[in-house]
Amino acid sequence: MVGDANARFRRLPLPRLSLKDMSPKPQPRPGLAETDPTYFRAEPVSFVRRGERMTNAQQRVWDTLRDTILIDVPRHHAATSIHPDANIDVPSHFPHPARPLIVEIGTGLGEAIAHAAHNNPETNFLAVEVYTPGLAKLMERIEKLELDNVRAIPVSYTHLTLPTSDLV
Predict the structure, then answer these.
(1) How far is the C-alpha of 59 from the C-alpha of 5, rounded, in Å?
(2) Which 3 state secondary structure label does DSSP give 58?
(3) Is 4 exposed, middle or buried (0-12, 13-18, 19+ CB in 10 A)?
(4) How many helices (H) and strands (E) are present in the chain, helices listed first?
(5) Per-residue model confidence as pLDDT tens digits over 110-167
(6) Which H or E run contains 102?
(7) Sign (positive/negative) of CA torsion 139, 91, 88, 125?
(8) CB 117, CB 147: distance < 8 Å
(9) Mean pLDDT, rounded, of the chain
(10) Distance CA 23, CA 154 (A)
(11) What is the pTM of this model?
(12) Ranges of H-type helices in the chain
């Protein structure tokens, strides 16, 4: 009986494998960049797009303020890109376009830019962020603080070019 119990734990011989027996790694599938070079990204992606779910409060403020706060841009291939031929007049989206402009890249949930805009009402602020719930949270702060000097652009900063004359 003892012998039968130990038989269950007996080592089985493993098959010997050589490198030639192993299958090759799968090769990447050709992408759109192969047929259309404009799809090729020469620069690294600067972010990981997170989930898009919003709370009820965020959805309400998004639906209410997005047309005022968000600067709509023509897209290229990606949802966070700007078409290379686009010419965006950022100051014209503010009630006071002649004011100095400060750009925050990677606004997150908007705590810093809302605080700065509240404390500097004579300056315009542009939030560059791709995280939709973060932009909605920023809109909640804008609404609560009654700010008119903040706008947001939902793009990757690698696609954004602003004339230096617009910046502080």
Answers:
(1) 63
(2) helix
(3) exposed
(4) 5, 3
(5) 999 999 999 999 999 999 998 899 999 999 999 999 999 999 998 877 666 666 655 5
(6) strand 101-105
(7) negative
(8) yes
(9) 79
(10) 43
(11) 0.67
(12) 2-7, 32-35, 56-69, 111-119, 132-145
Residues in the chain: 168
DSSP reduced 3-state for 90:
helix
Query: In 10 A of CB 137, how many CB atoms?
Result: 24
Enumerate long-range contacts of 52-58, CB under 8 Å, 24 or more apart.
Answer: 52/132, 52/133, 53/133, 54/132, 54/133, 54/136, 55/133, 57/140, 58/133, 58/136, 58/137, 58/139, 58/140
Q: Could you report the per-residue pLDDT of 11-33, keeping only the tens digit for each? A: 666 666 655 555 555 555 556 65
Q: For 35, what's the count of Cα atoms within 13 Å in the CB-facing half-sphere?
A: 4
CA dist 149 to 66, 119, 126, 142, 146, Å? 14, 11, 9, 9, 9
Cα separation, 33 vs 42, in Å, equals 11
